Automatic annotation (TrEMBL):
Residue stretches making up the GHMP kinase N-terminal domain: 65-143
Keywords per UniProt: ATP-binding, Isoprene biosynthesis, Kinase, Nucleotide-binding, Transferase
Family: Belongs to the GHMP kinase family. IspE subfamily.
Organism: Marinobacter halodurans
UniProt name for this protein: 4-diphosphocytidyl-2-C-methyl-D-erythritol kinase
Active site (record annotation): 10, 136
Highest taxon, organism lineage: Bacteria
Length: 284
């Protein structure tokens, strides 16, 4: 049986850096929400026991691809030979955009192959495996919008408004390590509790990486300045994408249609339940 599943994008509706740990990682607070836009993975049975993937992604060696690493983790977890599977990736999400493309692909692989191979692993165990691949993978595995703390792995489910977004991808890729090593990065934002994240003026929340990214990458600043004409515009994660929130699809499309030539991106709706989990529920 062939199985096709979405790998949705995410936004960080805000990203506050509240400190730096002794191991060099940063303590964060952020709010994740999924989008109705993303990659797509198709799992097809093959003879033998190999896992294969196509197409290759420029600049990402096959052995380092998070999809293949996720598959190998499940093979090791099973502890036995599993049927062969070919994975085809339909890539729609930009690399280095801060919207979770690689992490989402990894999570879809974990949940998809758990279903495909009938392993019966719990969501908790899959999230533990996902954390080995990246701090953002567990939120995709668990499949609900969440207030995240720690390095992004401590998740509390929540339900922000499901608004529409214009998402712009400037023509650059952000070096995350460089951003977090910058001396000018804000690292002492006061921590908040979940409730204030939904109270008052949402524009008072921010992405603490945004000023540094805009300083180092003029293309990001230019996109933010253009989108800011229509309301608050913000960087998501530590990637290059800028987003603006709108109450209706028609308003978001009106803004998108007014964009200058050369701007790339998409219009989509924010959702609190992952499209991946919605699809898997339909299969059960």
């Amino acid at each position: 049986m062939t199985l096709t599943l979405p790998a949705p994008a995410k936004l960080n509706l805000f990203l506050h850096i509240i400190g730096r740990r002794p191991d060099g990682y940063h303590e964060l607070q952020t709010l994740f929400q999924f989008l109705e836009h993303g990659d797509e993975l198709t799992f097809s049975p093959t003879s033998g026991s190999r896992v294969t993937l196509e197409p290759a992604i420029d600049g990402v060696p096959q052995e380092n691809n998070l999809i293949m690493r996720a598959a190998r983790l499940l093979q090791a977890e099973a502890g036995r030979e599993l049927p062969g599977v070919h994975i085809h990736l339909t890539k729609r999400l930009p690399m280095g955009g801060g919207i979770g493309g690689g992490s989402s692909d990894a999570a879809t692989t974990l949940l998809g192959l758990n279903h495909f191979w009938q392993l019966g692993l719990s969501i908790d165990r899959l999230a533990e495996l996902g954390l080995q691949l990246g701090a953002d993978v567990p939120v995709f595995v668990r499949g609900h919008a969440a207030f995240a703390e720690g390095i992004g792995e401590k998740l509390t489910p929540c339900d922000p408004p499901e608004d529409w977004y214009v998402v712009i991808k400037p023509d650059c890729n952000i070096n995350t390590g460089m951003i977090f090593s910058e001396e000018g990065l804000t690292r002492n934002t006061p921590p908040i509790t979940i409730a204030p994240a939904f109270e008052g003026d949402a524009s008072r929340y921010r992405n603490d990486c945004e000023d540094i990214v805009c300083k180092l990458y003029p293309e990001v600043e230019k996109s933010r300045d253009w989108l800011s004409q229509f309301g608050p515009a913000r960087l998501t994660g530590t990637g290059a994408c800028i987003f603006g929130r709108f109450p209706t699809e028609s308003k978001a499309l009106e803004v998108w249609d007014s964009r200058p030539s050369g701007i790339t991106g998409f219009v989509t709706r924010g959702v609190n339940s992952s499209p991946l989990h919605t699809k898997l529920t339909e299969l059960d």
